[in-house]
Design goal:
mainly alpha, HD/PDEase_dom, HD_domain, 63% helix, 216 residues, HD domain-containing protein, single chain, globular
Length: 216
């Protein structure tokens, strides 16, 4: 991995990227916001590791929007009656459209957000869906050997974890408890609600994060 900490921490500076970042920092908790930002940084590192080139193979601004907004459905700004991935995708599409993004690009981000919990689907859909999901997965510590300890430490120093996995599950379970339509059968929300009710801690997310490279 050739990326250095300074390069790895750089965020896009376009007007749209600034609007997206401002929204996330305003409506998401620190744990969720930092997770979203780290997901982008890890997604870009994964793209580099995979040999993908910005502009030629993927759009950095769209990757930033998809990663930053992938959990916007866990905020009060987008907490509707649908599963959080879809509520979030809908909110992201509305926001990006309001800020002038063309329809095809909005649709691409919608798909990346809506599919980000769908293992084996997102990875095979297109580059944006794949890199978005891989950035999120990498923030849980999976398959991160190609990232140097120096770069990983720099990212976490700038954007601390704040018990991220527990914070995410807390919100998902709270939303699903209040609105059962948000936890359709076999969805992540339904599984988290079931396991939290039966065991008190989810194996898939919380326990896995605790023993992962980055921790919870």
């Amino acid at each position: 991995m050739t990326s250095q900490p300074t390069t790895a921490l750089a965020l896009p500076q376009t007007a749209l990227a600034q609007h997206v970042l401002a929204l996330v920092l305003r409506v998401e908790t620190p744990a969720v916001a930092n997770h979203s930002i780290r997901s982008f940084l890890f997604a870009r590192l994964f793209a580099e590791h995979a040999g993908a080139k910005p502009a030629a193979d993927y759009d950095t601004e769209l990757l930033f929007a998809a990663c930053l907004l992938h959990d916007i459905g866990l905020s009060d700004a987008a907490n509707g009656d649908l599963r959080f991935e879809v509520d979030g995708a809908n909110k992201a599409a509305e926001f990006l459209t309001e800020h002038g993004l063309e329809a095809a690009a909005v649709d691409a981000v919608w798909n990346a957000i809506a599919l980000h919990t769908s293992s084996q689907i997102a990875e095979t859909r297109n580059a944006l869906c794949k890199f978005t999901r891989m950035g999120i997965v990498l923030d849980f510590g999976a398959d991160s050997a190609f990232i140097s300890d120096e770069v990983g430490a720099a990212i976490h120093d700038r954007y601390p974890r704040h018990s991220m996995a527990t914070a995410l599950v807390d919100i998902i379970v709270e939303q699903a408890t209040a609105r059962p339509t948000k936890a359709p059968p076999f969805s992540p929300a339904a599984e988290f609600l079931r396991v939290r009710t039966q065991q008190g801690e989810t194996t898939l997310i919380e326990k896995a994060a605790e023993v992962s490279r980055w921790g919870n």
